[in-house]
């Protein structure tokens, strides 16, 4: 694999240069000109190739760019500066290798890690770029890699293939050059969409004809607008307007279409998918940013100490040092006390630099790597169904997982499985069906077996209520009519692969679930023509004449069909939102409507998506009169849509209620529980989805983000800047009214309330302090067009404050770029750690923008995973990632840093105090080998063990008590205050370690009367006391003991004594007499009882205040992790009384009814043609929309 990377490096270099050229074109290109089948003409514009790059480096740029990024770390620059100083012999009392070796080690480890991460990005890019595509070259279809496709090429796509680039659809195998696409990678929606070529190019289906096509397209430059395209095709001296309906965008999948041809308009980085994906950003944690600041402060502190000691050197050399000039002259470069002080300053800068040793950064990387492996190895985050384990794709953000305050989640494929199942229904006042898991758990009921009596049944359909099947069998009229509505009132297309094997092509998964339910209960939709619908009702073929389809749209929230049955009776069947349908029922339905409403409330409470069903009988005269009015509205040249809506409204009245359906948009396992636990951890979850409002709201209820106990749910749907601003401000007034129990202009129903300016004063933006005081039992739902205005500079802060005061926020119909802008808004103004989670290419921009990006390896490809920092297969694993791994990583890193700064200040500041007693000569207290080994051997492993393995509470307690997560959000465990406490403790310890041995040994003697006050004895005593004190301190700091902790702590202590005696032994002295001068010093010093008493005294004085403080804190102000108890809340919520909400959600789109009745989307089979011929006498009154 590495060979392949090197093999392609020249090509990668070319692509890199070409990418930057294309970026230049993006900013300067005003319009794009593309000529079909003319590469020479198109290449002069230097359009981007179809090769994509999500990687950051190539062979040439890796070293300079990576080093530039690494030296953005203040510490790396600081150590480089120290290395340069150590190369000057006049000022360096330490060897240069003590700095260059750790520095090169840190840079190398980080570079290898970055190169590995980028190699996998190159690998994934190569997988995409090397996909095969059929390109028309010289009149012949040839297989080409995606990266070799160029703007102006004509490509052939086949069913279930990904679209390679942004294409202008030229022709299709389907009637009228229609084709169906799935856009899940772009907007998260899995319902099919229709695209159609221009009629002038629809006949170019043959490669020979397409090879002669030389049309030129003039269109807009590359942009990120997924729902808009504006261009013109010039061909044969004519021009033809182009729109988004003629385009196939990269990332879409061709569905239910045998083949089609398209002209490449945008390629590679210019495609709308890549324009929305954002740039790969260099992410740092908040602790990294704080560390940069602290390093600067420490450097300033180091300079101050150096200045103090340099001034001391100048004074000493002038007042005292002159007396020693006769036998201890200055070195040749030094000729006066000021120059001596200048050199002394730099010498002390080198000696005291260990306050921030480079081993700190090596240790941090090792700890992060260990935490990443814990995530990868966590079996509780492994999905056996998909055989997918959790993966930490980066090692630099682990502790940030313990500080998340905002989660931005996609809906489709992330919260849901995008699988619709028919669960319950209400027919003529009787409820049928129950939840499968409840049935299996309590009644041990098996799913109904439909295949025994219905050979056309779908074997994957599951239903558990036997009573509905019995009602069908005994012939209850209401049940039969209910199922008949489901089999007739839809826009599904049926394809019979072989005899008895039906495949439904549904424009939305909702419709597919409903038609499949009717199919299994014996009312099988079999086929359709533009004027007929053929069903099998309990085994009997029945053909209905399709007189009209009253199409669905988001305003009507319903669809109807008018059919004539074989007996000649005309009936209108309607399905739609209960809130809309109930208003159009006949007055005699009042009692049934109340019963059905109760059932709908129950279904909505279970988070099911509901539709109400009704019918109306029409006389021949009513039909003829209405049909005449419809023809007039359909042919109107102005306000056609409004006229049609009015005509639809006329006929959809006085209907008879049949019942309601309840479809479950299946959530992923554990989603409601995960959201509930994360909410208790004070994490706010925002859902950003491309789905329509009703669908998103329904899922909000299903996963318990929205509840009926909420005080109010506000909806912002304004289409102008002013209307959006007014809705936001009136919603805020509604909060004030709700909090005041309705004594204001807001109150209940504010979401749908049109403000009456005569009664209420003009809305004013509420102060942020008021918004912050809101209890949070509110929700905000905002649409994409409103969000576009809310994100403008003069309104974004008001929108943010309003949204952050809500417990739940759902943004509907948002583009990938809008998702990223919302995340960026929170990052910029709230200064909170954000996490974005999604599973599709439409989530990539959001994932890259957030502090932490999580990819779900779901059904929408792997683009989100490739762009993410962490990945797994189920949303429910997020709670474990944050509350266990994230919390532990933050806790461990904070404890590690606190201890590390403490032990190094305790070690280094001894040199400072010693300076006042050695004539400020920059002499070190410890020997050079102890200084080198202190951070590498004596104290490195114990602190690493604590940083990798430490715990305050077991993992189960972390999940049981989510409030334990809050210290990370509030940044309590390591901040500037904690840093100064650690520094103060370190300085205090250094004072004890220096002055206790100094005071004792200056007057102590050996047993033979020889004084102990010599340099070697003092150095050994102080060093030994230091190692023992910091070892005792880390033993106190360790909260979770393992065998590894014991081995490292006590083993490091043993290692110190072993090395100490070895360095002072005669063996090394005989081998290296110039390197090891102090023969026998360790044995002589540690053989004195007074030395051990001195070490014990220093240890007690250093540790006693720490123990006393911790016992007092534990007794007087214990933390939640200390008590392991959670305080319950007795606060209630303001409910909305007996108000009911609709569970309506229908992922359908307008326009399919017109396609069906026009026949444009049908390839008529022989059976359908025969059926149409037999019923031709009934079709004379049928008309097309």
From TrEMBL:
<dbReference type="InterPro" id="IPR023214">
    <property type="entry name" value="HAD_sf"/>
</dbReference>
<feature type="binding site">
    <location>
        <position position="410"/>
    </location>
    <ligand>
        <name>Mg(2+)</name>
    </ligand>
</feature>
<dbReference type="InterPro" id="IPR006539">
    <property type="entry name" value="P-type_ATPase_IV"/>
</dbReference>
<keyword id="KW-1278">Translocase</keyword>
<feature type="domain" description="P-type ATPase C-terminal">
    <location>
        <begin position="865"/>
        <end position="1118"/>
    </location>
</feature>
<dbReference type="InterPro" id="IPR044492">
    <property type="entry name" value="P_typ_ATPase_HD_dom"/>
</dbReference>
<feature type="binding site">
    <location>
        <position position="842"/>
    </location>
    <ligand>
        <name>ATP</name>
    </ligand>
</feature>
<keyword id="KW-0479">Metal-binding</keyword>
<dbReference type="InterPro" id="IPR018303">
    <property type="entry name" value="ATPase_P-typ_P_site"/>
</dbReference>
<feature type="active site" description="4-aspartylphosphate intermediate">
    <location>
        <position position="410"/>
    </location>
</feature>
<dbReference type="GO" id="GO:0016887">
    <property type="term" value="F:ATP hydrolysis activity"/>
</dbReference>
<feature type="transmembrane region" description="Helical">
    <location>
        <begin position="1091"/>
        <end position="1112"/>
    </location>
</feature>
<feature type="transmembrane region" description="Helical">
    <location>
        <begin position="929"/>
        <end position="949"/>
    </location>
</feature>
<dbReference type="InterPro" id="IPR008250">
    <property type="entry name" value="ATPase_P-typ_transduc_dom_A_sf"/>
</dbReference>
<feature type="binding site">
    <location>
        <position position="839"/>
    </location>
    <ligand>
        <name>Mg(2+)</name>
    </ligand>
</feature>
<dbReference type="Pfam" id="PF16212">
    <property type="entry name" value="PhoLip_ATPase_C"/>
</dbReference>
<dbReference type="GO" id="GO:0005524">
    <property type="term" value="F:ATP binding"/>
</dbReference>
<feature type="binding site">
    <location>
        <position position="411"/>
    </location>
    <ligand>
        <name>ATP</name>
    </ligand>
</feature>
<feature type="binding site">
    <location>
        <position position="412"/>
    </location>
    <ligand>
        <name>Mg(2+)</name>
    </ligand>
</feature>
<feature type="transmembrane region" description="Helical">
    <location>
        <begin position="896"/>
        <end position="917"/>
    </location>
</feature>
<keyword id="KW-0812">Transmembrane</keyword>
<feature type="binding site">
    <location>
        <position position="690"/>
    </location>
    <ligand>
        <name>ATP</name>
    </ligand>
</feature>
<dbReference type="GO" id="GO:0045332">
    <property type="term" value="P:phospholipid translocation"/>
</dbReference>
<comment type="similarity">
    <text>Belongs to the cation transport ATPase (P-type) (TC 3.A.3) family. Type IV subfamily.</text>
</comment>
<feature type="binding site">
    <location>
        <position position="552"/>
    </location>
    <ligand>
        <name>ATP</name>
    </ligand>
</feature>
<dbReference type="Pfam" id="PF16209">
    <property type="entry name" value="PhoLip_ATPase_N"/>
</dbReference>
<feature type="binding site">
    <location>
        <position position="689"/>
    </location>
    <ligand>
        <name>ATP</name>
    </ligand>
</feature>
<feature type="binding site">
    <location>
        <position position="511"/>
    </location>
    <ligand>
        <name>ATP</name>
    </ligand>
</feature>
<keyword id="KW-0067">ATP-binding</keyword>
<feature type="binding site">
    <location>
        <position position="843"/>
    </location>
    <ligand>
        <name>ATP</name>
    </ligand>
</feature>
<feature type="transmembrane region" description="Helical">
    <location>
        <begin position="979"/>
        <end position="998"/>
    </location>
</feature>
<keyword id="KW-0547">Nucleotide-binding</keyword>
<feature type="binding site">
    <location>
        <position position="412"/>
    </location>
    <ligand>
        <name>ATP</name>
    </ligand>
</feature>
<dbReference type="GO" id="GO:0140345">
    <property type="term" value="F:phosphatidylcholine flippase activity"/>
</dbReference>
<feature type="transmembrane region" description="Helical">
    <location>
        <begin position="294"/>
        <end position="316"/>
    </location>
</feature>
<keyword id="KW-0813">Transport</keyword>
<feature type="binding site">
    <location>
        <position position="410"/>
    </location>
    <ligand>
        <name>ATP</name>
    </ligand>
</feature>
<feature type="transmembrane region" description="Helical">
    <location>
        <begin position="1048"/>
        <end position="1071"/>
    </location>
</feature>
<feature type="binding site">
    <location>
        <position position="609"/>
    </location>
    <ligand>
        <name>ATP</name>
    </ligand>
</feature>
<dbReference type="InterPro" id="IPR023299">
    <property type="entry name" value="ATPase_P-typ_cyto_dom_N"/>
</dbReference>
<feature type="transmembrane region" description="Helical">
    <location>
        <begin position="6"/>
        <end position="27"/>
    </location>
</feature>
<dbReference type="InterPro" id="IPR023298">
    <property type="entry name" value="ATPase_P-typ_TM_dom_sf"/>
</dbReference>
